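Minutes, methods subgroup
Present: GH (chair), OT, SY

1. OT presented the first of two proteins processed in the latest run. Sequence and structure tokens recorded below as shown on screen.
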Amino acid sequence: MEKLFKYYLGADISHKTVDFSLLKKDNEKIIFSKAIANTSDQLKKIIEQLPGDTFVVMEATGNYHRKFVAELVSAGIAFTVLNPLVSKRYAQMKMIRTKTDKIDSKTLALYAMEQNPKAFIVASKAQTKLKDIITVRNQLIKQKIQNKNLLHSQLILPENNTIIIKSIKKIVTVIDKEIIKIDETIDKILEENFAELYKQVKSIRGIGEKTAQAVIAHLGNLENFKSYRQVSAFIGLNPKTENSGTSLKKQKGLGKQGNKLLRSLFYMSAMSAVKYNKACKEFYVRLLQRGKSKMTALIAVANKLVKQLYAIVKNNRMYSDDYIHPRYAS
């Protein structure tokens, strides 16, 4: 059981401002609320005003919440970072229909007070750096694809503009060089900080280098997850189902909640795992024999990969087709 706190602070964070609401345990009345600029100086002042035994809760907001996280870590204050979908579902359950920054911050504090979430374990500097640089790499790849498509559209014109074509080719060349530099940096970070973990994750048949790198960047050693199901929920590996009244259930593919990058990578990894991962291949065949669609079966295999990932990381071992830990056996 997680520690119970006397006070709960909800923080609704945006690019420029942060709204706070402080609640005392077992009391839904706000005892303190304030809106401040999202700057280190202002955040430090708020932290200095907090009573002892306070737990802080906020939503993941891209990079906007990271400044507050750094200040809380420095001050030694316990906190958690919620998936926005969790707080949204909680507000719906509580039938909170009015949406303002102040109400949102109170809702976050209420959630922490009632649900008593686990304190968040902050990623190491190496993991944060890895995550940031992989994000940049993915953006560069998108830019490269966009420019190559643009180049193609120019080349098929009846009269080519050589200046435009040379310019686009130069941009693609520069992007390629930057991607090579970034890949070298990623390899260095992994070798110096996550060599053993990287080997373990890659040992799972079906999970390649890019998926393993993203897993370490976004999930680390799985410190913030109590089960593989929590990891699957974070990634968003749940099929979207339509089921209304007497209508038949319809599988509509993967939902859009969760980590978009990891969701895509695990789905692609599942396509490889059904060929080369013994347990996943057998599982996939069984599902198809039971009448499941290929997409539904692949999503189930992606979840099985997460289960295998959780097992090997938590047990600090390499993957083996023939090893089945009693605790994680199907």
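2. SY then presented the second protein from the same run.
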Amino acid sequence: MVGQGERAGVAKLKADALSAPDKDSAGVRLMSLEQTQVRLASCHSSPFPSFARAATSTAMSTTFQLDTSTSRSHPTPQPMRRLTVPAIRDRKQDGVTTEPIVVLTAYTARQAQLLDPHCDVLLVGDSLGQVIYGLDSTIPVTLDMMANHAAAVVRGSYHSVVVVDMPFGAYEASPEKAFESASYLMKFSGAAAVKLEGGEAMADTVSFLVQRGIPVVGHVGLTPQAVNVLGGYRARGRSEAGAKKIVADAVALDEAGAFAIVVEGVVEPIAVDVTKAVSCPTIGIGASAQCDGQVLVTEDMLGMFERVPRFVKRYGDIAEVIAETAKKYAEEVRARTFPGEEQTYQPK
């Protein structure tokens, strides 16, 4: 039941709405009034009023798509069910993956929208530090950077599993620190899983996260966050000791509960050995076609940069397209041929 004081408040709102100077504003006020009445009723009928108020105060939607005519994001019916972490993990059965896992990086909603129909996983990589922000390495990337970009990717996708990188300094200190960072990323962005770098040293952290409901992708071999220790971005596993450590790192992460492991920048036989040694899927980048899936930085694959790592295959030359398009625009502006009649408003 709605109390007497609340009834009086509702009556006043109704009177104010009906006295609005125009019909449109009156209609909007009455609509708001009706929503208020529904919420008040639900709050008083619930044994937990505070929870009822929270549940009715915001309309929730997990699926947002960009309207390409306006560049705005709107809730839409979900065209298909999003892939899940267990579905990705189960691609590998008895050591065999019959359908390789397709992964690309994504950092924005529109980019996610274009990549999503073709991918199984969208990785919001800390490589955004270099690709988006022009940083020298991934070391300066912050938790808030990752959270904001991951949220955009989730909004722009409906099919792929969205995985977000844990940035340097957000998880290494302790499993508890890792949980704090990972839970923040997932709650803020809606991502399904996190990825962290490191092998045996991070196994306890991976186990800690998985046991508390946070799916984890591991990362072995060339780990860019450790560039200052590694001394550069050279391929790993060329020595016997180095090769054994990479395999041991992967096995430790697999046993700790990682549902997939990125294998980056290792000599090919080591990537094959790792793939055979672990029960979860391996995602190669500069590794081997025999891995259970592949990932590339999307901007590298599209040809946004002239200089890319050896393991990148350029499938396009988007940099040339952008440069030529900008050149044509600049020429038309300087020649005063843009805007033309089609792009201007004329008197009727």
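Chair's summary of item 2: Residues 1-7, 20-62 have pLDDT under 50 and may be disordered.
Next meeting: continue with the remaining queue.
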